Amino acid sequence: MDLLNTLVDKGLRREVPTREEALAVLATSDDDLLDVVAAAGKVRRHWFGRRVKLNYLVNLKSGLCPEDCSYCSQRLGSTAGILKYTWLKPDEASRAAAAGLAGGAKRVCLVASGRGPTDRDVDRVSDTIKAIKDGNEGVEVCACLGLLSDGQADRLREAGADAYNHNLNTSEATYGDITTTHTYADRVDTVRKAHAAGLSACSGLIAGMGESDEDLVDVVFSLRELDPDSVPVNFLIPFEGTPLAKEWNLTPQRCLRILAMVRFVCPDVEVRIAGGREVHLRTMQPLALNLANSIFLGDYLTSEGQAGKADLEMIADAGFEVEGADQVTLPEHRVTATGGCGSQESAGCGSHEGGACGSHEGGGCGSHAGGGVCGSGAGAGAATTAQVTEARTDLVAVRRRGAGTDLAPNA
Questions:
Q1: What percent of the chain has pLDDT over 70?
Q2: I want to staple 361 with a disulfide (CB 3.0 to 4.6 A). Which of 18, 74, 236, 300 is the partner?
Q3: Residue 142 annotated in active site
């Protein structure tokens, strides 16, 4: 297929595909799916070999969020039966992180619900970062605390944070349909604050909220322009008790096409399969490792993930290897360069070695109490899929172990 040959050539040269080419990837048929995976896999292996970076989430503060993000089980008005607790103490968070590190994770992502941290919250997280780093030499720490005020990114960097995650989630045109308590511009501002402070910027998206192919391409091209080191791809987990509980718009095949499109647009960036891979990729998860070079190990913020042991077996059985703590995630040219999302000849994508987190199982924040759905206009690629996709509510399990409980974590 001429399209795929062109995209492979561009990916190996770090050239930007056109919007039309990105849309064409999403429009490919199931008959061509393995060809799409193989083509994007060539780009992935060129820049990252067969390494898979493992990341581990620690939910520092769960539930009770004042934001109205439609996809989030921790949102204002959510009736999802998730764990709710206030800030973990530094030693509690450090113990939780240790389980993931013992399972092979090289990055710990510290996440807290809420609009954004107070200065006192930044102090708490700074203490937690120090506790984790003091007990685990070489560990990378990413923070995901919501919208940042001036100076807070610098303080996190001084405390030892390596990265900051804040997802754009969807296109600017449809952002107001999923969130009313903050804006798309607020999110862009926080990513820029993190980058300016010298933190490795991490920002991604959520697929499966009813968005169109055009929305998906818009947000990925916007992310490329924002210059993140890593792009987490979340697949919506439709929690009962949230406005998007009935949005079952994804098939495993569509998930793979989305990941391939992201890889072609950001060829040498850490692409992470984040929340929802078990729910929507299901038995096709091993194929996705040919597209993404990073995953989360074990459970997510408020939902259960695949057992950590199963993750490790999947990686080995698919012919990949876990990235070691002594290995640099990003290609050498990106460690020192600056520029776009690794697509142009002169581009780099941030100055630090790691990627970052992509933490929310459904993303970040968002929407009317009535549950507006992204991209409901004509041409929505997911709309036709939604008519034939079976709701797999049996795969959505609320986390009942790990951080905030007395039970051992799944790592």
A1: 87
A2: 300
A3: yes
